[in-house]
Amino acid sequence: MALTMVSLAAIAGKPTAASAQFVAEGRESAARLYALLVGSSALHGPVDLAEQILLCFDRALAKLHGVNLAGAEDDDDAAGNGNGRKRKPGRGRGLTAASAAASSKRMRVSNAGGNGARIERKATMDDKFLWRKYGQKEIKNSKHPRFYYRCSYKDDHGCTATKQVQQSETADDDTASPVYIITYFGEHTCRHGDDAAAMVVDGGEEEDQLSPAQMVISFASSNGGDASVSWPCSGDDAQNNSETSHESSPPEAPAGEEEHLRPCTAAGVSDEPIMESTPPAPELLADLKPMDGCLLDGESLFGMDELVYFHELSAALGLLDRDWGAPV
DNA sequence: AAGATTTGACCGCG
DNA sequence: CGCGGTCAAATCTT
Q: How many domains does chain A have?
């Protein structure tokens, strides 16, 4: 979480001029990468990814300049559930890439359901893995329920990965951009995440642009170190980041809530609480492994500082050479 | 019919 | 005893 706080704080208090400069540079780099990939790569994945990055930068720039690119928002519209009963889900999933992509689209149509269920569900499905919801619980001192998901391949492969999604307290009231705290537990012993990753790149993008939600992702280290990352899920930029920043040090319950997050690690589950304000110790970072479920998909729009920081961190850990966002 | 979500019940822990 | 996590029957969508 220190990760989050550092980067977000930097963004929050900064004038747009400097930010725009960074974004512009990043955009240019992405454009070059895209050009290179288009010219040389026979694979769709990398090209799509580059295109997505490019798109994100464009949107970020547009935002910074006060321009409103179509797309984002109009999302949780019908949120509010009003009722609260059985489903109408977009039934998300499917064991094949094709069907999963389709389900992703389905989510958009259905689910007028409540508590921003759509966003929540979307956030749930965005991390390249196929999750199956197995529970929902009202949490004390929390206005929003916590959703429990497990890997869809639990039965097939005995995959023990699970995750919890909960809308944060502070940012949701202004409806503008709810923050979802996603905590991953356990390890994906299945390899389907790679397939899923590919499919998201291929088909899940429209959906991606819908959600104004932000996410605070918690990773885990085997020794309990924290390595949470947060980013806005939509075209919302620095503004959101600042909100997320606040989110990280809320005046009320959420703080305790986040301290409860026990990020997962490739090695297993840690029960150590996460200290929001404590910078990750080097040894903790060393233990940080990229959990598949924590992949950052194309829709994610990092604040520049975040991006840089995360990139550096990843590079330092040799993560970028792995399957982070790189469909196999 | 298959498979996913909903939701109340159950269980373990502090 | 309260709370959080999981189970499983019922329900719903495709």
A: 1
Mean pLDDT value across residues A219-225: 43
* A90 belongs to a structural domain: yes
Residue A104 belongs to what domain range? Answer: 2-317
Percent of chain A scoring above 70 in pLDDT: 16
- The reply to whether A156 falls in a domain is yes
A254 touches strand C (CB under 7 A): no
Q: Is the pLDDT assigned to residue A160 strictly greater than 50?
A: yes
Strand B footprint nucleotides (protein C-beta < 7 Å): 3-9
Distance A42 CA to C8 C1' (A): 47
- Closest nucleotide to A133: CA versus each C1': B5
Question: Is the residue at A323 inside a domain?
Answer: no
Residue A325 lies in a domain: no
* CA–C1' A108–C3 (A): 34
**Based on the number of CB atoms within 10 Å of its own CB, is A274 exposed (0-12), middle (13-18) or buried (19 or more)?**
buried
Which of the four pLDDT bands, split at 50, 70 and 90, describes residue A72? very low
Rounded to an integer, what distance in angstroms lies between the CA atom of residue A209 and that of residue A235? Answer: 7
Q: How far apart are CA A27 and CA A89, in angstroms?
A: 36
Instruction: Kindly provide the residue ranges of all beta strands, DSSP E only, lying in chain A, ordered along the sequence.
Output: 131-138, 145-151, 162-167, 179-185, 214-218, 229-232, 264-265, 268-269
CB A255 within 8 A of CB A197: no
Over residues A158-168, the mean pLDDT reads 81
pLDDT, mean of residues A256-280 = 36
